[in-house]
Amino acid sequence: MAIEVRIPTILRTYTDGKKSVEGSGATLDELFSDLDSRHSGLRGRVVDNGELRRFVNVYLNDEDVRFLDGITTQLADGDSVTILPAVAGGAR
């Protein structure tokens, strides 16, 4: 099962600069474990204590997984996952 994962610029040091990588897994949790086996350290930047990190947004086919089943969201062959760190700040 191939799932495309889009990697934000800030995490590309874990993927040798690649903008997207392929992974596999029946759930997001399994997908992040699979990715970590080839891109060591990536899972730790997205997952903390078995849950998605608070300031990292993950989208499955353009849907926020927090409104699905979070880290246990089911995946299917051909799905697309996007990782986006939350950005805050701005001018006063």
Label this structure with key terms.
five-stranded mixed sheet, alpha+beta, Beta-grasp_dom_sf, 27% strand, two-stranded antiparallel sheet, 92 residues, Ubiquitin-like (UB roll), ThiS/MoaD-like, 17% helix, Sulfur_Carrier/Prot_Modifier, 7 strands, MoaD/ThiS family protein, 2 helices
Verbal overview:
This protein has 92 residues and is α+β, with helices and mostly antiparallel strands. It has a single domain (3-85), classed as Roll (Ubiquitin-like (UB roll)). It has helices at residues 28-38, 42-46, and strands spanning 3-6, 20-23, 47-48, 51-52, 56-60, 63-64, 80-85. The strands form two sheets. The chain has a five-stranded mixed sheet, covered by helices on one side. The longest helix has 11 residues, at 28-38. It is globular, with a radius of gyration of 13 Å.
Give a short synopsis of this structure.
With 92 residues, the protein is of the alpha+beta class. It is built from two helices and seven strands.
Alpha-carbon Rg, integer: 13 Å
Tell me about the biggest sheet? 5 strands, mixed
List the uncertain runs.
none
> According to CATH, what is the topology?
Ubiquitin-like (UB roll)
State the helix count. 2
Strand order of the largest sheet: 2-1-7-5-6
SSE order in H/E notation? EEHHEEEEE
Number of domains: 1
Average pLDDT for all residues: 92
Strand content: 25-35%
Terminus-to-terminus distance? 47 Å
Instruction: List how many beta strands DSSP finds.
Output: 7
- CATH homologous superfamily assignment: Beta-grasp domain
Approximately how much helix is present in the residues? 10-25%
**Multimerization status:** single chain
Structural class: alpha+beta
CATH A-level architecture: Roll
Shape: globular
Pfam families: ThiS (PF02597)
Protein name: MoaD/ThiS family protein
Organism: Streptantibioticus silvisoli
InterPro entries: Beta-grasp_dom_sf, Mopterin_synth/thiamin_S_b, Sulfur_Carrier/Prot_Modifier, ThiS/MoaD-like
